Amino acid sequence: MRYVSTRGGARPLAFDDVLLAGLAPDGGLYVPREWPRLTAAQIADLAGRSYAEITFRVLRPFVGNAIRADDLEALVADAYAGFGHEAVAPLKQLGPNDFLLELFHGPTLAFKDYALQVVGRLFDHVLRKKGARVTIVGATSGDTGSAAIEACRDREAIDIFIMHPRGRTSEVQRRQMTTVLSPNVHNIALKGTFDDCQDLLKAMFADVAFRDRFALSAVNSINWARVAVQVAYYVASAVALGAPRRRVAFTVPTGNFGNIFAAHAARRMGLPVASLVVASNRNDILWRTIAKGDMSLSEVEPSLSPSMDIQVSSNFERLLFELWGRRGKATAALMTRFRAERRAEIPPARLAALRAGFAAGRCSDEETIETIRRVHQRTGELLDPHGAVAVHVAGIARGRRDVPMVALACAHPAKFPDAVERATGIRPALPARLADLHERRERVSVLPNDLRAVEDFVAARARMR
Ligand SMILES: *Cc1c(COP(=O)(O)O)cnc(C)c1O
Fold first, then answer.
1. What digits encode the pLDDT tens for the residues 136-183?
2. Does the Cβ of 308 fall within 6 Å of ligand 1?
3. Is any atom of ligand 1 closer than 6 Å to the C-beta of 259?
4. What is the pTM of this model?
5. Which DSSP string corresponds to 228-294?
6. Does domain 91-107+225-424 have CATH number 3.40.50.1100?
7. 464 C-alpha to center of ligand 1: Å?
Protein backbone atom coordinates (compact mmCIF):
# COMPACT_ATOMS: atom_id res chain seq x y z
CA MET A 1 0.00 0.00 0.00
CA ARG A 2 1.38 3.39 -1.08
CA TYR A 3 0.27 6.90 -0.22
CA VAL A 4 0.24 9.97 -2.43
CA SER A 5 0.00 13.67 -1.54
CA THR A 6 -3.23 15.60 -2.21
CA ARG A 7 -1.05 18.24 -3.92
CA GLY A 8 0.61 15.80 -6.29
CA GLY A 9 4.16 17.01 -5.66
CA ALA A 10 5.55 14.37 -3.29
CA ARG A 11 6.93 10.93 -3.93
CA PRO A 12 4.61 8.03 -2.93
CA LEU A 13 5.46 6.53 0.46
CA ALA A 14 4.66 3.42 2.47
CA PHE A 15 2.60 3.55 5.68
CA ASP A 16 5.53 3.79 8.12
CA ASP A 17 7.06 6.78 6.32
CA VAL A 18 3.66 8.50 6.04
CA LEU A 19 3.20 7.97 9.77
CA LEU A 20 6.47 9.72 10.62
CA ALA A 21 6.12 12.46 7.98
CA GLY A 22 2.68 13.81 8.96
CA LEU A 23 2.36 16.57 6.38
CA ALA A 24 3.72 15.85 2.87
CA PRO A 25 6.74 17.94 1.77
CA ASP A 26 4.62 19.72 -0.89
CA GLY A 27 2.24 20.93 1.85
CA GLY A 28 -0.42 18.33 0.99
CA LEU A 29 -1.92 15.50 3.01
CA TYR A 30 -1.25 11.85 2.35
CA VAL A 31 -4.07 9.63 1.07
CA PRO A 32 -4.01 6.00 -0.08
CA ARG A 33 -3.22 5.64 -3.78
CA GLU A 34 -6.25 3.37 -4.02
CA TRP A 35 -8.79 2.41 -1.39
CA PRO A 36 -8.42 -1.06 0.09
CA ARG A 37 -11.64 -3.08 -0.04
CA LEU A 38 -13.41 -5.15 2.57
CA THR A 39 -15.69 -7.71 0.90
CA ALA A 40 -19.18 -8.39 2.28
CA ALA A 41 -17.89 -11.74 3.55
CA GLN A 42 -14.98 -10.05 5.35
CA ILE A 43 -17.36 -7.53 6.95
CA ALA A 44 -19.76 -10.30 7.99
CA ASP A 45 -16.84 -12.16 9.55
CA LEU A 46 -16.22 -9.24 11.95
CA ALA A 47 -19.48 -9.89 13.82
CA GLY A 48 -18.86 -10.89 17.42
CA ARG A 49 -15.16 -10.04 17.38
CA SER A 50 -13.54 -7.76 19.96
CA TYR A 51 -12.97 -4.09 19.19
CA ALA A 52 -9.20 -4.67 19.03
CA GLU A 53 -9.62 -7.54 16.56
CA ILE A 54 -11.86 -5.45 14.33
CA THR A 55 -9.37 -2.57 14.44
CA PHE A 56 -6.54 -4.90 13.48
CA ARG A 57 -8.46 -6.27 10.50
CA VAL A 58 -9.51 -2.81 9.29
CA LEU A 59 -6.04 -1.32 9.74
CA ARG A 60 -4.06 -4.14 8.19
CA PRO A 61 -4.64 -3.28 4.50
CA PHE A 62 -3.70 0.36 5.22
CA VAL A 63 -0.46 -0.73 6.87
CA GLY A 64 0.45 -3.24 4.17
CA ASN A 65 3.94 -4.70 4.55
CA ALA A 66 5.23 -1.78 6.63
CA ILE A 67 4.64 -3.60 9.94
CA ARG A 68 4.45 -7.34 10.58
CA ALA A 69 0.89 -8.53 11.08
CA ASP A 70 1.55 -10.16 14.47
CA ASP A 71 3.30 -7.01 15.73
CA LEU A 72 0.38 -4.88 14.58
CA GLU A 73 -2.13 -7.18 16.21
CA ALA A 74 -0.30 -7.14 19.56
CA LEU A 75 0.14 -3.38 19.45
CA VAL A 76 -3.57 -2.75 18.81
CA ALA A 77 -4.62 -5.17 21.55
CA ASP A 78 -2.32 -3.37 24.00
CA ALA A 79 -3.68 0.05 22.97
CA TYR A 80 -7.27 -0.76 23.93
CA ALA A 81 -6.55 -2.98 26.94
CA GLY A 82 -6.75 -0.05 29.36
CA PHE A 83 -10.05 1.42 28.15
CA GLY A 84 -12.82 1.85 30.68
CA HIS A 85 -15.53 -0.21 28.95
CA GLU A 86 -15.45 -3.87 27.90
CA ALA A 87 -16.89 -2.98 24.47
CA VAL A 88 -14.36 -0.10 24.05
CA ALA A 89 -16.80 1.76 21.75
CA PRO A 90 -20.28 0.82 23.02
CA LEU A 91 -23.57 1.73 21.30
CA LYS A 92 -26.44 3.10 23.39
CA GLN A 93 -29.98 3.21 22.06
CA LEU A 94 -31.69 6.60 22.34
CA GLY A 95 -34.84 5.98 20.29
CA PRO A 96 -36.61 3.47 18.01
CA ASN A 97 -33.76 3.39 15.50
CA ASP A 98 -31.47 6.06 16.96
CA PHE A 99 -28.16 5.23 18.53
CA LEU A 100 -25.28 6.92 20.31
CA LEU A 101 -21.74 5.66 19.74
CA GLU A 102 -19.79 6.35 22.93
CA LEU A 103 -16.18 7.22 22.13
CA PHE A 104 -15.10 8.49 25.54
CA HIS A 105 -13.86 5.41 27.35
CA GLY A 106 -10.16 6.08 26.75
CA PRO A 107 -7.66 7.53 29.24
CA THR A 108 -8.53 11.21 28.59
CA LEU A 109 -12.27 10.70 28.01
CA ALA A 110 -12.31 12.03 24.43
CA PHE A 111 -12.54 10.22 21.10
CA LYS A 112 -9.01 11.28 20.15
CA ASP A 113 -7.74 8.53 22.46
CA TYR A 114 -9.12 5.90 20.06
CA ALA A 115 -6.66 6.90 17.36
CA LEU A 116 -3.81 8.27 19.47
CA GLN A 117 -3.43 5.25 21.74
CA VAL A 118 -2.62 3.23 18.62
CA VAL A 119 -0.64 5.98 16.88
CA GLY A 120 1.71 6.53 19.87
CA ARG A 121 2.53 2.82 19.83
CA LEU A 122 2.94 2.82 16.03
CA PHE A 123 5.43 5.70 16.29
CA ASP A 124 7.41 3.91 18.96
CA HIS A 125 7.43 0.61 17.06
CA VAL A 126 8.50 2.12 13.72
CA LEU A 127 11.14 4.37 15.29
CA ARG A 128 12.71 1.57 17.28
CA LYS A 129 12.95 -0.59 14.17
CA LYS A 130 14.64 2.26 12.33
CA GLY A 131 16.89 2.98 15.34
CA ALA A 132 15.57 6.55 15.45
CA ARG A 133 13.93 8.89 17.97
CA VAL A 134 11.59 11.86 17.76
CA THR A 135 10.81 14.87 19.90
CA ILE A 136 7.10 15.58 19.72
CA VAL A 137 6.14 19.18 20.38
CA GLY A 138 2.61 20.52 20.58
CA ALA A 139 0.46 23.42 21.69
CA THR A 140 -2.93 22.93 23.27
CA SER A 141 -5.79 25.09 24.48
CA GLY A 142 -6.75 22.19 26.71
CA ASP A 143 -8.05 18.98 25.18
CA THR A 144 -5.73 17.59 22.55
CA GLY A 145 -2.64 17.95 24.74
CA SER A 146 -3.74 15.35 27.24
CA ALA A 147 -4.65 12.80 24.55
CA ALA A 148 -1.20 13.26 22.96
CA ILE A 149 0.55 12.97 26.33
CA GLU A 150 -1.31 9.78 27.24
CA ALA A 151 -0.43 8.36 23.80
CA CYS A 152 3.30 9.05 24.15
CA ARG A 153 3.99 8.56 27.85
CA ASP A 154 6.68 5.97 28.64
CA ARG A 155 7.36 5.35 24.92
CA GLU A 156 11.03 4.49 24.54
CA ALA A 157 11.71 6.38 21.29
CA ILE A 158 9.67 9.51 22.05
CA ASP A 159 10.01 12.64 24.18
CA ILE A 160 6.97 14.87 24.28
CA PHE A 161 6.71 18.59 25.13
CA ILE A 162 3.27 20.18 25.35
CA MET A 163 2.74 23.92 25.84
CA HIS A 164 -0.46 25.23 27.35
CA PRO A 165 -1.33 28.84 28.18
CA ARG A 166 -0.73 29.21 31.93
CA GLY A 167 -3.97 29.69 33.88
CA ARG A 168 -6.17 29.54 30.77
CA THR A 169 -7.17 25.90 30.70
CA SER A 170 -9.71 24.33 33.01
CA GLU A 171 -8.42 22.66 36.16
CA VAL A 172 -9.39 19.20 34.86
CA GLN A 173 -7.72 19.84 31.50
CA ARG A 174 -4.49 21.00 33.18
CA ARG A 175 -4.40 18.14 35.65
CA GLN A 176 -5.00 15.55 32.91
CA MET A 177 -1.68 16.75 31.45
CA THR A 178 0.43 17.73 34.47
CA THR A 179 -0.28 14.68 36.63
CA VAL A 180 1.40 12.40 34.07
CA LEU A 181 4.80 12.05 35.77
CA SER A 182 6.50 9.84 33.17
CA PRO A 183 10.11 10.96 32.58
CA ASN A 184 9.57 11.48 28.81
CA VAL A 185 6.61 13.86 29.36
CA HIS A 186 7.27 17.60 29.74
CA ASN A 187 4.50 20.11 30.39
CA ILE A 188 5.17 23.78 29.75
CA ALA A 189 2.83 26.38 31.23
CA LEU A 190 3.55 29.35 29.02
CA LYS A 191 3.13 32.90 30.28
CA GLY A 192 0.92 33.84 27.34
CA THR A 193 -2.17 32.90 25.34
CA PHE A 194 -2.94 29.85 23.22
CA ASP A 195 -2.02 31.89 20.14
CA ASP A 196 1.39 32.60 21.72
CA CYS A 197 1.83 28.83 22.21
CA GLN A 198 0.97 28.21 18.56
CA ASP A 199 3.30 30.97 17.34
CA LEU A 200 6.17 29.50 19.36
CA LEU A 201 5.42 26.06 17.96
CA LYS A 202 5.56 27.40 14.40
CA ALA A 203 8.78 29.25 15.17
CA MET A 204 10.36 26.06 16.52
CA PHE A 205 9.48 24.16 13.34
CA ALA A 206 10.76 27.08 11.25
CA ASP A 207 14.13 26.95 13.07
CA VAL A 208 15.51 24.29 10.70
CA ALA A 209 18.72 23.61 12.62
CA PHE A 210 16.76 23.06 15.83
CA ARG A 211 14.05 21.03 14.08
CA ASP A 212 16.58 18.68 12.50
CA ARG A 213 18.80 18.33 15.56
CA PHE A 214 15.90 17.20 17.75
CA ALA A 215 13.86 15.47 15.00
CA LEU A 216 10.80 17.52 15.84
CA SER A 217 7.48 15.91 15.01
CA ALA A 218 3.79 16.33 15.76
CA VAL A 219 0.86 13.98 16.19
CA ASN A 220 -1.78 16.34 14.83
CA SER A 221 -5.00 15.38 13.12
CA ILE A 222 -3.66 15.57 9.56
CA ASN A 223 -1.61 12.43 10.23
CA TRP A 224 -3.03 9.70 8.00
CA ALA A 225 -2.53 7.03 10.65
CA ARG A 226 -5.01 8.78 12.92
CA VAL A 227 -7.68 8.74 10.21
CA ALA A 228 -6.99 5.09 9.38
CA VAL A 229 -7.34 3.94 13.01
CA GLN A 230 -10.64 5.81 13.34
CA VAL A 231 -12.20 3.82 10.49
CA ALA A 232 -12.53 0.92 12.94
CA TYR A 233 -15.36 2.31 15.07
CA TYR A 234 -17.54 2.97 12.04
CA VAL A 235 -17.06 -0.59 10.88
CA ALA A 236 -17.52 -2.05 14.38
CA SER A 237 -20.74 -0.14 15.07
CA ALA A 238 -22.21 -0.82 11.62
CA VAL A 239 -21.52 -4.54 12.03
CA ALA A 240 -23.18 -4.47 15.46
CA LEU A 241 -26.26 -2.93 13.78
CA GLY A 242 -26.44 -5.51 10.99
CA ALA A 243 -23.90 -4.60 8.29
CA PRO A 244 -23.23 -5.82 5.64
CA ARG A 245 -26.92 -6.86 5.32
CA ARG A 246 -28.15 -3.53 6.62
CA ARG A 247 -27.10 0.03 5.81
CA VAL A 248 -26.27 2.49 8.58
CA ALA A 249 -26.16 6.33 8.74
CA PHE A 250 -23.77 8.40 10.88
CA THR A 251 -23.86 11.97 12.22
CA VAL A 252 -20.43 13.25 13.23
CA PRO A 253 -19.66 16.38 15.32
CA THR A 254 -17.06 17.93 13.08
CA GLY A 255 -14.10 20.28 13.50
CA ASN A 256 -11.04 19.39 11.46
CA PHE A 257 -13.00 16.85 9.35
CA GLY A 258 -10.68 14.01 10.43
CA ASN A 259 -13.33 11.95 12.15
CA ILE A 260 -15.93 12.13 9.39
CA PHE A 261 -13.29 11.54 6.74
CA ALA A 262 -12.64 8.20 8.48
CA ALA A 263 -16.34 7.42 7.98
CA HIS A 264 -15.94 8.27 4.32
CA ALA A 265 -12.93 5.93 4.16
CA ALA A 266 -15.06 3.15 5.69
CA ARG A 267 -17.63 3.74 2.92
CA ARG A 268 -14.90 3.68 0.27
CA MET A 269 -13.71 0.36 1.70
CA GLY A 270 -17.14 -1.13 1.12
CA LEU A 271 -19.06 -0.52 4.36
CA PRO A 272 -22.76 -0.01 3.44
CA VAL A 273 -23.20 3.58 4.65
CA ALA A 274 -26.62 5.11 3.89
CA SER A 275 -25.57 8.71 4.64
CA LEU A 276 -22.93 10.77 6.42
CA VAL A 277 -24.02 13.94 8.16
CA VAL A 278 -21.59 16.72 9.13
CA ALA A 279 -22.71 18.38 12.38
CA SER A 280 -21.38 21.91 13.06
CA ASN A 281 -21.93 24.48 15.77
CA ARG A 282 -22.15 28.20 14.91
CA ASN A 283 -18.78 27.91 13.15
CA ASP A 284 -20.54 26.61 10.10
CA ILE A 285 -18.19 26.86 7.10
CA LEU A 286 -18.73 23.16 6.34
CA TRP A 287 -22.51 23.59 6.45
CA ARG A 288 -22.26 26.56 4.06
CA THR A 289 -19.93 24.63 1.77
CA ILE A 290 -22.25 21.65 1.52
CA ALA A 291 -25.52 23.61 1.45
CA LYS A 292 -24.44 26.43 -0.88
CA GLY A 293 -21.04 25.59 -2.36
CA ASP A 294 -19.75 28.64 -0.48
CA MET A 295 -16.41 27.87 1.15
CA SER A 296 -15.63 31.24 2.73
CA LEU A 297 -13.76 31.90 5.95
CA SER A 298 -15.12 34.01 8.79
CA GLU A 299 -13.87 34.62 12.33
CA VAL A 300 -13.88 31.72 14.78
CA GLU A 301 -16.59 32.30 17.39
CA PRO A 302 -16.42 30.57 20.76
CA SER A 303 -19.25 28.10 21.46
CA LEU A 304 -20.26 25.51 24.05
CA SER A 305 -18.53 22.86 21.90
CA PRO A 306 -15.00 24.31 21.74
CA SER A 307 -13.36 21.36 19.97
CA MET A 308 -15.45 22.28 16.92
CA ASP A 309 -14.64 26.01 16.99
CA ILE A 310 -12.66 25.82 13.77
CA GLN A 311 -12.88 27.58 10.41
CA VAL A 312 -10.22 25.83 8.32
CA SER A 313 -10.93 22.09 8.51
CA SER A 314 -7.56 20.73 7.45
CA ASN A 315 -8.75 17.22 6.55
CA PHE A 316 -11.37 18.62 4.15
CA GLU A 317 -8.53 18.84 1.62
CA ARG A 318 -8.57 15.04 1.43
CA LEU A 319 -12.18 15.15 0.24
CA LEU A 320 -11.55 18.04 -2.17
CA PHE A 321 -8.78 15.93 -3.73
CA GLU A 322 -11.35 13.21 -4.47
CA LEU A 323 -13.97 15.70 -5.72
CA TRP A 324 -11.38 17.14 -8.11
CA GLY A 325 -10.80 13.69 -9.62
CA ARG A 326 -7.70 12.95 -7.49
CA ARG A 327 -5.74 15.53 -9.46
CA GLY A 328 -3.00 16.94 -7.21
CA LYS A 329 -2.15 20.04 -9.24
CA ALA A 330 -5.80 21.13 -9.37
CA THR A 331 -6.18 20.55 -5.62
CA ALA A 332 -3.00 22.53 -4.92
CA ALA A 333 -4.28 25.45 -7.05
CA LEU A 334 -7.63 25.38 -5.25
CA MET A 335 -5.99 25.41 -1.80
CA THR A 336 -3.62 28.24 -2.75
CA ARG A 337 -6.57 30.31 -3.99
CA PHE A 338 -8.56 29.52 -0.85
CA ARG A 339 -5.68 30.61 1.42
CA ALA A 340 -5.08 33.83 -0.52
CA GLU A 341 -8.69 34.93 -1.05
CA ARG A 342 -10.15 33.32 2.09
CA ARG A 343 -12.88 31.81 -0.05
CA ALA A 344 -13.45 29.38 -2.89
CA GLU A 345 -16.51 28.28 -4.78
CA ILE A 346 -17.37 24.66 -5.44
CA PRO A 347 -18.58 24.39 -9.08
CA PRO A 348 -22.05 22.78 -9.61
CA ALA A 349 -20.93 19.32 -10.82
CA ARG A 350 -18.48 18.90 -7.93
CA LEU A 351 -21.03 20.29 -5.47
CA ALA A 352 -23.51 17.65 -6.63
CA ALA A 353 -20.89 14.95 -5.98
CA LEU A 354 -20.18 16.43 -2.53
CA ARG A 355 -23.89 16.43 -1.66
CA ALA A 356 -24.30 12.87 -2.89
CA GLY A 357 -21.83 11.85 -0.19
CA PHE A 358 -22.54 14.23 2.68
CA ALA A 359 -25.42 16.07 4.32
CA ALA A 360 -24.85 18.82 6.88
CA GLY A 361 -26.59 20.58 9.75
CA ARG A 362 -25.95 23.27 12.36
CA CYS A 363 -26.70 23.56 16.04
CA SER A 364 -26.72 26.75 18.15
CA ASP A 365 -25.67 26.93 21.81
CA GLU A 366 -29.35 27.17 22.82
CA GLU A 367 -30.17 24.04 20.81
CA THR A 368 -27.16 22.31 22.36
CA ILE A 369 -28.44 22.98 25.89
CA GLU A 370 -32.00 22.05 24.89
CA THR A 371 -30.77 18.73 23.41
CA ILE A 372 -28.79 17.83 26.54
CA ARG A 373 -31.91 18.55 28.63
CA ARG A 374 -34.34 16.66 26.36
CA VAL A 375 -32.16 13.55 25.96
CA HIS A 376 -31.58 13.42 29.71
CA GLN A 377 -35.33 13.73 30.43
CA ARG A 378 -36.31 11.06 27.92
CA THR A 379 -33.49 8.53 28.28
CA GLY A 380 -31.50 9.36 31.41
CA GLU A 381 -28.33 9.77 29.32
CA LEU A 382 -26.05 12.76 29.90
CA LEU A 383 -24.59 14.15 26.65
CA ASP A 384 -21.57 16.39 26.42
CA PRO A 385 -22.09 19.52 24.24
CA HIS A 386 -20.32 18.01 21.19
CA GLY A 387 -22.42 14.86 21.36
CA ALA A 388 -25.51 17.06 21.76
CA VAL A 389 -24.66 18.90 18.52
CA ALA A 390 -24.53 15.52 16.77
CA VAL A 391 -27.81 14.29 18.27
CA HIS A 392 -29.60 17.53 17.36
CA VAL A 393 -28.38 17.47 13.75
CA ALA A 394 -29.07 13.72 13.45
CA GLY A 395 -32.70 14.44 14.33
CA ILE A 396 -33.00 17.02 11.55
CA ALA A 397 -31.07 15.10 8.91
CA ARG A 398 -32.71 11.77 9.59
CA GLY A 399 -33.75 10.05 6.38
CA ARG A 400 -35.56 6.74 6.23
CA ARG A 401 -36.80 5.45 9.57
CA ASP A 402 -35.68 1.91 8.78
CA VAL A 403 -32.03 2.99 8.51
CA PRO A 404 -30.30 3.11 11.91
CA MET A 405 -28.87 6.57 12.65
CA VAL A 406 -25.74 6.64 14.80
CA ALA A 407 -24.70 9.94 16.42
CA LEU A 408 -21.17 10.08 17.77
CA ALA A 409 -20.55 11.06 21.41
CA CYS A 410 -16.94 12.23 21.26
CA ALA A 411 -16.38 13.42 24.83
CA HIS A 412 -17.44 12.33 28.32
CA PRO A 413 -19.98 14.74 29.89
CA ALA A 414 -17.63 15.28 32.86
CA LYS A 415 -15.20 17.04 30.50
CA PHE A 416 -17.77 19.82 30.04
CA PRO A 417 -19.56 19.88 33.39
CA ASP A 418 -20.73 23.52 33.22
CA ALA A 419 -22.87 23.07 30.10
CA VAL A 420 -24.27 19.77 31.36
CA GLU A 421 -25.15 21.30 34.73
CA ARG A 422 -26.79 24.30 33.06
CA ALA A 423 -29.00 21.97 31.01
CA THR A 424 -29.88 19.35 33.59
CA GLY A 425 -28.95 20.63 37.06
CA ILE A 426 -26.60 17.64 37.36
CA ARG A 427 -22.85 18.06 37.61
CA PRO A 428 -21.47 14.89 36.00
CA ALA A 429 -18.76 13.11 37.98
CA LEU A 430 -15.48 11.87 36.55
CA PRO A 431 -15.35 8.07 36.10
CA ALA A 432 -13.89 6.10 39.01
CA ARG A 433 -10.45 5.66 37.42
CA LEU A 434 -10.03 9.46 37.32
CA ALA A 435 -11.80 10.23 40.59
CA ASP A 436 -8.54 11.06 42.41
CA LEU A 437 -7.35 13.45 39.68
CA HIS A 438 -7.54 16.43 42.04
CA GLU A 439 -5.33 14.73 44.63
CA ARG A 440 -2.58 13.66 42.22
CA ARG A 441 0.81 15.34 42.19
CA GLU A 442 1.52 17.73 39.30
CA ARG A 443 4.76 18.38 37.41
CA VAL A 444 4.88 21.44 35.17
CA SER A 445 7.43 24.11 34.22
CA VAL A 446 6.43 27.74 33.87
CA LEU A 447 8.28 29.44 30.99
CA PRO A 448 8.22 32.97 29.54
CA ASN A 449 6.77 33.59 26.07
CA ASP A 450 10.21 33.43 24.48
CA LEU A 451 11.52 31.11 21.75
CA ARG A 452 15.04 30.84 23.22
CA ALA A 453 13.73 29.89 26.64
CA VAL A 454 11.48 27.16 25.21
CA GLU A 455 14.17 25.80 22.87
CA ASP A 456 16.71 25.70 25.72
CA PHE A 457 14.18 23.84 27.85
CA VAL A 458 13.61 21.25 25.10
CA ALA A 459 17.36 20.93 24.38
CA ALA A 460 18.12 20.21 28.03
CA ARG A 461 15.55 17.43 28.27
CA ALA A 462 15.16 15.69 24.90
CA ARG A 463 17.08 12.40 24.93
CA MET A 464 18.81 12.78 21.57
CA ARG A 465 22.05 11.06 20.84
C1 LIG B 1 -11.56 16.87 18.20
C2 LIG B 1 -12.99 16.84 18.56
C3 LIG B 1 -14.01 17.03 17.58
C4 LIG B 1 -13.70 17.33 16.13
O5 LIG B 1 -13.20 16.21 15.44
P6 LIG B 1 -12.49 16.39 14.00
O7 LIG B 1 -11.88 15.08 13.69
O8 LIG B 1 -11.48 17.49 14.20
O9 LIG B 1 -13.57 16.78 13.04
C10 LIG B 1 -15.33 16.94 18.00
N11 LIG B 1 -15.66 16.71 19.28
C12 LIG B 1 -14.74 16.51 20.24
C13 LIG B 1 -15.15 16.26 21.64
C14 LIG B 1 -13.37 16.57 19.92
O15 LIG B 1 -12.45 16.38 20.89
1. 999 998 788 999 999 999 999 999 999 999 998 888 889 999 999 999
2. yes
3. yes
4. 0.96
5. HHHHHHHHHHHHHTTTTTS-EEEEEE-SSSHHHHHHHHHHHTT--EEEEEEEE-S--HHHHHHHHSE
6. yes
7. 33
